[in-house]
C-alpha cells in the first residue's frame, strides 16, 4: 500500500507543476487521500510530525520569497505551494518506511532538483540564478531530511 501514497503525492506534484493555482481543489483531495492512507498505515500520531514538517517547509519557502531567492507570478507564496508542502510532508513516513538512506537521498537531492525543474518550466523563479539557488537549497533540504528522520523514526524506550 505505500505505492498509493507515492501516487497521491506525485499526482499533487504534477497538478501543482502543470496547473498551479487551478489545481488547488484537486490537491486538497490528494491531501485527504494522503491523510487517510498514512493514518491507516502508521496511526494518527504520524500526522503531528507531518504537520510540523509541512509548516517548516512552508515557512522556509516564505523566507526564500522574502529574501527574493524565490518568486512566483503573483506576490508571496501561492496556496498551491503550501498544499504541495503538506502533500510532501505526508509522503515522508512512507519514504522512511523504505529506508533512511532513501529518505535522505530523495529529500536532499530531489527537493532542489524539483525547484530547478519548476524554474525551467517557469512555475517559479529562482534568483540570482537557478543553478546557484538550487545548490543553496541542498543544505536546507538535507536539514529537512534529517529533521524528518528525527521526528518520524520510532522511539524505543
Automatic annotation (TrEMBL):
Keywords: Membrane, Transmembrane, Transmembrane helix. The chain crosses the membrane at residues 12-37, 44-65, 77-95, 102-120, 132-152. InterPro entries: DUF2878. The keyword Ligase does not apply. Pfam families: DUF2878. The keyword Membrane applies. This is DUF2878 domain-containing protein. It comes from Agarivorans gilvus.
